[in-house]
Amino acid sequence: xxxxxxxxxxxxxxxxxxxxxxxxxxxxxxxxxxxxxxxxxxxxxxxxxxxxxxxxxxxxxxxxxxxxxxxxxxxxxxxxxxxxxxxxxxxxxxxxxxxxxxxxxxxxxxxxxxxxxxxxxxxxxxxxxxxxxxxxxxxxxxxxxxxxxxxxxxxxxxxxxxxxxxxxxxxxxxxxxxxxxxxxxxxxxxxxxxxxxxxxxxxxxxxxxxxxxxxxxxxxxxxxxxxxxxxxxxxxxxxxxxxxxxxxxxxxxxxxxxxxxxxxxxxxxxxxxxxxxxxxxxxxxxxxxxxxxxxxxxxxxxxxxxxxxxxxxxxxxxxxxxxxxxxxxxxxxxxxxxxxxxxxxxxxxxxxxxxxxxxxxxxxxxxxxxxxxxxxxxxxxxxxxxxxxxxxxxxxxxxxxxxxxxxxxxxxxxxxxxxxxxxxxxxxxxxxxxxxxxxxxxxxxxxxxxxxxxxxxxxxxxxxxxxxxxxxxxxxxxxxxxxxx
Amino acid sequence: xxxxxxxxxxxxxxxxxxxxxxxxxxxxxxxxxxxxxxxxxxxxxxxxxxxxxxxxxxxxxxxxxxxxxxxxxxxxxxxxxxxxxxxxxxxxxxxxxxxxxxxxxxxxxxxxxxxxxxxxxxxxxxxxxxxxxxxxxxxxxxxxxxxxxxxxxxxxxxxxxxxxxxxxxxxxxxxxxxxxxxxxxxxxxxxxxxxxxxxxxxxxxxxxxxxxxxxxxxxxxxxxxxxxxxxxxxxxxxxxxxxxxxxxxxxxxxxxxxxxxxxxxxxxxxxxxxxxxxxxxxxxxxxxxxxxxxxxxxxxxxxxxxxxxxxxxxx
Amino acid sequence: xxxxxxxxxxxxxxxxxxxxxxxxxxxxxxxxxxxxxxxxxxxxxxxxxxxxxxxxxxxxxxxxxxxxxxxxxxxxxxxxxxxxxxxxxxxxxxxxxxxxxxxxxxxxxxxxxxxxxxxxxxxxxxxxxxxxxxxxxxxxxxxxxxxxxxxxxxxxxxxxxxxxxxxxxxxxxxxxxxxxxxxxxxxxxxxxxxxxxxxxxxxxxxxxxxxxxxxxxxxxxxxxxxxxxxxxxxxxxxxxxxxxxxxxxxxxxxxxxxxxxxxxxxxxxxxxxxxxxxxxxxxxxxxxxxxxxxxxxx
Lengths: 485, 315, 298
What we know:
CATH architecture of chain B: Alpha-Beta Barrel
Largest sheet of chain B: 8 strands, parallel
Structural class of chain B: alpha/beta
CATH class of chain B: Alpha Beta
Number of domains of chain A: 2
Number of helices of chain A: 15
Shape of chain B: globular
Oligomer: heterotrimer
Distance between the termini of chain A: 69 Å
Largest interface: A-C, 47 and 44 residues
Strand order of the largest sheet of chain B: 7-6-5-4-3-2-1-8
Radius of gyration of chain B: 19 Å
Largest sheet of chain A: 7 strands, mixed
C-alpha cells in the first residue's frame, strides 16, 4: 500500500500581526513624516503584495535624527549601567512576548520561511538583547580598561537578509555601552525595525536613544557622511563597505564593517557524510542562501565527490520550496526582484562558463520572486561563480585532492568570512581551522550563531567583530589614551 | 534462505575483515544527527495529512505485550484489539501484527488466524539474549513451529561490544536459518550499544547477515527508540538498498506513546527513505499504549471534539 | 661625523635597506642626504622607490606563513634576542639617536634604553595576548566555541617622524609580536637608527622578511603600499593629516585595517592597543555531542 505522504498546507496565521497602511520615521520617540513627504512601498517578496508605505528619509531627516540621538546621548550615557541594563532586559522580554507576531511580520516582509524566523531569527534576537543587557553594568570588567567610555552617536545600516537580527546585533551592544543610535533598515525590509520602535516605546526607552530612519542607499549615505556621527556600523555589500571606508577616511569616525563572503565548505573523505550533507544544505540554502557567511563553495575531496553529490542531490529533492508562511516550507522567496535578477544572471554566467547546472524538480509559485535550489558541478577556481558572491540558493561544487590543496583553494578569495570543515579526525580539524583565513570556522556544523560568539571577517569581508565580549570594543573608547582601546 | 549478497562475502571472511568493514563506515556526528531529527520533528502535520498519518501509523503497529504476567486471556484480548482497534469505527485499520513471547505465539496465531494480522514472536532469550546459541535456536524454532510469521531476535550485545562481530554475524545467520520463512527482525538494543557509530555498524552487520528488519530496542532498557537512532537506521537501510538492491525494514520500538511522536517518526521515514518504506511491510512501530492515543486522535479528527480514555478500549 | 682620534680616519658606513633578510641598495640607485639636527651631513640613505616597496611586500608575504605559524614562545624568544643584541650595540644607537634627534647623550640613552625595554615588554606579550583577548564562548548549544586572535598578515608601518628609535620600536614590535610581518617606512628625516636596527634584526634569529625596512620619502613609498592589494594593514603613525587621509582612502580599496595617527608620548605605558590593532579574531565551532545515544532521549 505504499503511498505518498503529502503534507497538508500548514500556514501560520497572519492575524497575529497588524500592519498599518503607512509608517513614518521614528525620531526622538515619535513617528513623523519625512521632510519632503516622500514615501516608498514595501512588498511581500512571496506575493508582490504591497504591505505598507514607508517614509523616505532625506538628509534633512537624518540631521534631525542625529540631533535627537546627540541630545539623548548625555543622559543615556550618564545613566548607571544597571539602569541601562534593565531597559535592555525589558526590550528582550517584550521581543519574546511578541516573537510570533514579529516572526510572521519578518516572513511577510523578507520572504524567508516562518520556520526560520520562528526557530532562528527571533530566538537569536531576544538572546542578543539579553546577552548585552547583562554587559551594561560590567563594562569595567570587559578587558577594555577600568572605565571605558561610549563613543557617542552610532549610525547603523543593516541589510535585508536578517532584518531584525541585524538590528539586534547593532542596537543591543550600542545601547549597552551607552551610545545612542540612528538606524537605517534596508529599503526592502523596513517593517520589523519600525515595529521595534514600538517595542522601544513599550519599554519606556528615553526619547532619542533609538531612532529609526527608513530609506534607500541615499539615506544611508547621508547618515554615513553626517558630521556628528561618531561610529558607523554597517552590514552589507563589500562595495558599499569600501565606499564607507573611503568616506570616513581622515575623520575620527570609527567603523565596523560586516561585508560579503564566499565561504568554503570543505568535505574530507572521512566526513560524517549524512551530517555533512545536512551541513552543506544548511550552509547554502538557509535563508535562500542570502547569507554573507553562506558556504557557497563546496570543496569536496575528489575521492568522495560522486558519493557526496549523489546524497546531496537526493537530499535537495526533499526541500520544500514555497509559501514562506507555511510551517513546512524549507525555502522561501528571494527578497527582491533586483536580487533575483542578480542571482539569475550569475547562474547564467555559470552555465555560459561551462559549469554543469542541476536543480531538483520543484514547482515555483507564479507570483513573487523565486529561484530553485541550484547546484553547479565541474566548477573551478577560474569560474565566476566560484569567485563572486551570488547571495542566493546556488552552490558551486569544486574538488580537491589533499588538505593542502583544500586550504589553498578555500583561502584563494578576496573574502574571509566563514568556512566549514567536515572530517572525523580531530587533529585535521584543528590544523585546517588554523590555516583558514576566515573569521568564523564551523567544524562538523555550519551557520550556527550565538550572541556570545564573535562574528566578523578577514580581508575584504570587513573588520570589527559583533557578538561576545569582542562586540563591545566596537562601541567603546579607551579609558586612557594609550590604554586598551 | 536468502543468500548473502556476494559483495559482502569478503567482509565476512574473518573477524578482522568484518571489523575493518564496519569501522570503515562513515562516522556519525551526534549533534548533527540529533539536530536533523529534531528539525524534522518540527514538521506541522495537519488535517488530511494527519488523518493519513494516523491510519498509516495504526497499520504499522506491532501491538505488543511482553510481560512475565502474560496469559492466554491477555494475548487473546490483545489480538482482538489488533483486529478491531476501534469497535465504534470499523474504518479503523487493523494493526500490522501482535508481538508476544514465543510461548504465547500459538495462542496469538489461533486468535488471528486468517485475519492478515501477523504474529510476531520475540526469541533468542529475549530481552537479554544471554543464552547459548542452542537455546536461542530452540527458542526460534519453537516460535516458528507455533506459527509465528515474524521472529524478533536480539543480538548478543556483549559480543558486539567486545568486538566479536563475526560471532554476532554468525548468530544472526543461524537464527535466520532457523526462522525459515518467517521474517526476521534483528533487535540491536541501541540503548546498550550506546554510540551512534555502533548503531550504524550494527545496522550493517544485521543487514549483511540477512535481517529482514532492523529494530532499535526491546523496550526493556532506559533508552529505546528515539528519532535520532531511528533516523540513523533509516539512513542505513537507504544506503544498503542503494548498494545491494535489497530493501530492509525498520522498526523503532519502545517509548513511542503519542500520536505526535508516531507522526514524527513517519516524517523521518518520508523524508529519509520516502514512499517505498511507508508501508507496514517495511516500517513498524513496536508499541502498546501508542495505539489508544492514535485512536483518540482519530476520533478527534472525525468528530471534531477531543476524546478521552474511556472512549477507547483498555486491554 | 666626529672622529675621536685625529690620527685615524674613521670608516663610514653605507646605510642600506633591509629587505627579505638582505641589505640591498634601492633598486632605483637613488640616495638622499641625511643630516643631523643642525644640518650637518651624516650619511646617505637609500631613497626607496615603489619597486623597493613592492619587493618588501613580496618578502613580507613570503615570511608570513613561517612567522605567524611559529609558536608564540618562539616569537617571544626572538623578540627577547633582539633586546639582547641591542643591549650590546647600545652605544651605537645612543650616538645615532643623539645625532638624529639632537638630544643630549643622557636623553638619547634614556630613549634607547626605553626602546630595548620595549622589545622585552613585547617579547613577554607574544604568548599572553591570546589568553587576554581570546577564549571560550559559552554558546547556548552543544558546541565548543573558541575565539583566538590571529595576525592580520602583512602590515605597513609608517614609523613616527620625530622619534627615530623609541617611536620606531614602539610601532614595529607590537606588529610582529603577534605574528604579522612588516614593511616599515623609516622616519624620512631620521632614518639611520631604523636602518641600523635592520642590522640587529639580521643577527637576532628573526627570519628574513619578517621585518623589512625602507628609507626615503614617506609619501612616495607609502602610496603604493597603501594601495597594494597584498598588504592587509597599515599603521599611519608617520603620516601627517593630509597624507593620512589620502592613504586611508587608498587603503579602503582592499579594506585594509588602518591605525590612524594620534599624538603619543612614546615613553608612556603602551597598553595593548597596538597589539590588537592588527589582530583578527577567529572563532571556531565544534559539536560537543553526547557520550552516547543512550544519553539522549526526546
